[in-house]
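Why this split exists: single-chain examples teach little about how molecules sit against one another. For that reason, every record in the complexes split bundles all components of an assembly together and asks for one structure covering all of them. Below is a record exactly as it appears in the raw files.
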Amino acid sequence: MRPIGKTSWLAISCAISSFAVPCPAQEAPTPKWGQAQQISVPAPDGNLQGLLRSSPLPWKNAKGEIENRTAMSLYIPQRNLLWLGNAGYSKFFLLNNKIVAWNLLAGPTLFVSMATASIPQSPDMESVVKGELGRRYTRLLANDLRYDYRIPLTLIFGRFAFAIPGDATPAPPPKVTGFSFDNGHPVIAFEGQNGAKAAVTLDRNVHVIAATLRGQPIPLAGPLKPEKITPDEE
Amino acid sequence: MTNCVYAGTFTGSGSRASPSVACPGDLITFSAWVVDSGGTVTIMNTDGDCNVTTTTNSVSATPQWTWSVNGCSDSSRGQVCSVAFELPNPGTYTCNFTATVANCPDSPLQMNLSASATVAGLVVSNVSFTGTSEFNILQDNGSGQYSAPHWTPTNSSPVGYVANTTGAVTAVFAMVPTNLACGSSVIIRGDGPNGLSIPATTCTVVNGAATLNGTFSNAFPNQVGFLNPLTINWNYSGDDGYTFHPAGASANPVYITLTNPVTMTPNLYRTVLHLACSNPGATTSNVAVANTWALFAGPANVTTWNGQTLYYYEPGHGFAGTCLDTAQLLTNASHNGQCGAWAHLFIDSVAVNGAAANWVNIAPVSATDFAFLITNWSFRAASFSNTPPYTWKLQFATPNMDMVPIPSGNVYGDLTSLTGTSGQNSTTPAEKVFNLHFIVCCNGTYYDPSYGVTYEDAADFESKAVTGYGELLPGDNPPGYTNLILRVRQPSGSVGIYFDPLCP
C-alpha cells in the first residue's frame, strides 16, 4: 500500500489539465465509502456474494472544474477480489478470476471495466483492502475512465439491426434480458427497441466469440476484443 | 289625383302554372296599366338588366333595355301597355322598370315599377369524373379518398388522370324550378379549355333532372399537368341545338401524371400529387423529378396543397410525437416530421410520375461515433482531456439525446447551438444531434428533402452539414443519470459519414 499525499494528487490533477492555470493548494479528496450493499455476482461455478460500495468522486475536468461523480467498488471476500471503477456499471460477473463490470449502452455498445486486484491474504484484510481502494481511487481521480473498455456491437450487428425502420429518434439502451454461462463462457442476451433479440458470447478474455440475432448466428471474422477507451495504461 | 301609371306585372307567354315562370326561350311580358295614355308610353328597364336574386349564372348588364310602346290596348279604366323580352339565363329575377307616359294630364308622368320572374332551366348539380385512367386521391386529413361526385355547388374535389389519356364525366342537371317540365329531352354540352370539352349530347329529362355521360373531346396533354381548375361551362338547348343556354359551370383541380401513380405508391395524398404535378410541363420522369425537387430545394419551406406548413423538427418541439412517414406528416395536425417522413414524402412525390427513388441511410463510419452534430455550433473550452479527440462535453437537459427542452442560452455543455442549418420551415430545426439520418437517391443524385439540399457523396454531406461527432460513455452517464452527456470531436481528415446504400 502506498498512501498518496497532497503533493502527488495535485501533481496528477494539475498534469491532466490542458490549461496552464496554477493549481491552488488543496487537500486531495479521499474516498468516503458508503454502506456496503450485498450483491450476487455470477460466476461459471455458481454465484458469489460481493460487497458493493460507492463513494463521491470529485473528478476535476480539463477546465479545472470539479464534476461530482461517483466511484464504485466491489469486493468478493470468498476470492479476495477487488474491483474499483466509475459508477457507469451496474452489472458484474466473475471470469478467469477477475471481476468484470459491464453495461450495455445505446448503439449498442458493451462497456466493460476489468480493473481487478487480487488481494493477498493478510491478517489485516480490512487494512489491505482499504489501502488498495485508496490507491485505485486516486488513479480514478486522475482519469475516471481509466479502467474502461468498449466493444461496439455495431461492428457485429450493424447500425440498423435494432433500429425502428425510418425512425431517427435516438435509440435507447438495449434491454438486457438475460445473463448466463455457457460452458464457462458468459452470454449476454438483450433486446433492441425494435424487438429484435440478440446475444453475445464472451471468452475468458472478454472477447466476443459468438453472436446471434433473432435466433440466427452472426458470422464473425474473429474474436472481437475490447478496446481501451483512454490512451493511458492501466 | 290619378296616377298615369299605377301597376306592373310579369306574364309568361306560355301556358304555365305560374304566370311569372317561363321556360328557356319563352317570352316574358311586362305589362304596365296606364291611365289615359294620350300618347306614347315608354317602359324602360331602369337597372339595365334585371337584378338577379337567385341564380347560378351571371347576367350581362348591357344593353339597357328600352322599349317604346305604341298603340296600347284599350281598357275600361285605361290602357295596358306591354313589352315582351327574354331573360337569357335560368334563375329568379327582380326587374325594375320605369313606365313613362308622354302626355299625362296628371302628375306624375312616370312611375317606378318592379316585378319578379323566374326563368326555368337546367342547372348543373353535380359532376363526377370517370374514365379508365382516372385514379383515386387520398385526402390529407386522413378521412380516405375523395369520392364522387367530385363537384357540387358546395364542393370541388381534386381529380387525377394519366397524361395522354381521355377522361369522361357524368354530370347531373336539375330543372329549376323542379316542378316545371320544359320539354322531355335537351342537348347538353360542356365547354372546357384547350379542347377539354364534352361534345353536345342528347339527354332525357326525367323527374326534373337530366344526366349526361360524356367523354372529353381531346386527351389530356402528354405531360405532367395541373389544371387549377378545369372549368367546364355547361350549356343546354331545348330547341335541338338551335340556341344554347347556360346551365352553370363546374370547376375542379385536375392533376395529370406521367404514369399511373397507383402502381407506384400507396400514399397518393393530395399534397403528394400536388408536389408531383403543380410544377408542370415535364414530359419525362427525370424532368418531373427536377420539377418536384424545385418545390423542396433551398429549403423551399414545403407546404400542403392548401398552404399548411410542414415542418422538419419544428423549433421548440423535440423528437416525441414527430411524424415518421408521409401519411403521418400529412394527416397529423402537427405536420412535424423527422428526416424519414421527408424522405418518404419526396419518394412518394417523384413516384407519382414514375421515378424510382431509393431510401438512403446515413450513419457515422466509426463504431465509436455514437452520434453526429448538424451545423451550426460554437465550441468553448473543452472539458475532457483523457479521451482525445473527443474533448468537448455535449450535455442535454434530459437523460435523452434530445435538444428539447432547450437549455438557457442554447448552451449544451461546452457547445452552443447556433442558428442553422435551415430545414423545411425551420430556420434552426429543434433537433441537430442524430444517430441516423435518412435521405433519398434518385437518378444518381442524393436528395435531402429535410434540408432541401443535394449531396455528391458522404464527404459532401459531412462538409455541408456535420460539425462534430459524439461518443457515449458509461462513466459520463451512470445508471440513473439525468443529463445525457456525449464527448464530441470535430471532423478530421477522414470522412466520418457513410451512405447506405450508395446511389447506383
